[in-house]
Amino acid sequence: MKERGVVRVPGDKSISHRALILASLATGESQIEGILDAADVRSTAGVLRALGAPIPDLSSDFSVTGLGLHGLKSPDNTLDAGNSGTTVRLMAGVVAACRFSSRFEGDASLSRRPMKRIAEPLREMGAQFTFENGEDGLPMIVHGGNLSGIAWNTRASSGQTKSCILLAGLVAGVHVTVIESRKSRDHTERMLISLGVPVSVDDLSASLLPVESLSPLELTVPGDPSSAAYIIAFGVLQTEGEVRILDVCMNPTRIGFIQTIMDMGGDIEITDRKAIAGDEVATLVVRPSMLHETKIDVDRIPSMIDELPLLACVAAGARVRLEVREAAELRVKESDRISTVVSNLKRVGADVEELPDGFVVKPGNSVLAGDVITEGDHRIAMSFGVLAALGKNSINIDDRDCVAVSYPRFWADLESIRLTR
Ligand code: S3P
Question: pTM of this prediction?
Fold first, then answer.
């Protein structure tokens, strides 16, 4: 089959945040290759710098000399997490274990997002929280200190909450256990284990035992499967030529979208599998496909939570029925993603119904046209960007620049495969 293009998606966002945090806490020099240079990861770098960590400008190959587990300094100013939930929730765990106070703020979207989920376990461990606007959201002050160990059931599935508690345990030097209802992304556990930290993982629980110090990292960040998802979606929805996507992270907690597209009849060949930093990485060859309806197993939702708006757009583009339930968590992402995806699909003429905890897309118009209002949400912009790049669709996106949060090269990469060679 004729080749449409080759894409190397940027480094994984979740792994990039964690790499900066762990490198700052390590004793010695960490070497990091392929980090994602995007607004969210820059927010984590900025917060760490404000706490005294010598993080250089992000580049494809750079090193960080860590301060050790107890080397962070009291910040002079407010810590600005920008649009990034991962920055504030993971760093709250880190500073909760430090004997000073840290004030976090963020943009309008982040300020509305729930922080109680991390404040509750951290309070139980001994930290104190001040919320400036009621009992949740940002700005928030974390008064850190003498933490004790905890066994915490999140009754949810959240990589950020789990990582927050594990990082608090790591810095405080206390035993922590996190139990979840469904397994969330496990990069923190894998990275800590690869650095020799005694972390034991048993299906829905992860436990960390104290260590004296953390070894530096030597890490190549694999391609982000959440960014690859947009390229995959375009690859299966267009009518000719194959797209090759290099070195995509195939961590089992992240590939729900790929598995679901394959269940829908998507022609995705997984080749060149190799192990990098405790995770599998592979090249994906994506070909035009006739997609059909599939039933979504709710256990798979956490492994594709960020890709659900895109899946809705794929269903609308392929004119197949899709029902997503038990995904109410989408309502507290960068936007209320159930509402933003449903209202925008309606705006472009698709047949879609909003549910309290999800949505139903039904086969509808073959040509989609209209104006998309992203509400500054990068994943809404990219999901509709895929539909906009297809066939006769005529879709205008109000804020194309917000893709800088996670995938700054998105429009160029999409254009490179849109134009058949
Ligand atoms: C992330 C976890 C997920 C995900 C987010 C990144 C992480 O959030 O949606 O984009 O890096 O741990 P939750 O922990 O809120 O599910």
Answer: 0.98
Which of 186, 220, 254 corresponds to the end of one domain? 220
Considering the domain architecture, whether residues 241 and 315 belong to the same structural domain is answered as yes
Q: Which of 113, 158, 189, 326 to mutate to test the pocket of ligand 1 (most atoms within 8 A of CB)?
A: 158
Would you say residue 380 lies in a domain?
yes
Cβ neighbourhood burial of 348 (10 Å; 0-12, 13-18, 19+): buried
Q: Which of 20, 47, 48, 50 is nearest to 36 (CA)?
A: 20
**What are the pLDDT digits (tens) for 206-227?**
999 999 999 999 999 999 999 9
Residue having the nearest C-alpha atom to atom 2 of ligand 1: 159
Measure 159 CA to ligand 1 centroid, in angstroms: 5
Give the residue numbers spanning the domain of 71.
Answer: 13-220
Report the alpha-carbon distance of residue 330 to residue 206 in Å, rounded. Answer: 24
367, 379, 352: which is closest to 257 by C-alpha? 379
Same-domain check for residues 141 and 239: no
Q: Which residue has the tokens 């960014």?
A: 227
Q: Domain check: are 61 and 77 in the same one?
A: yes
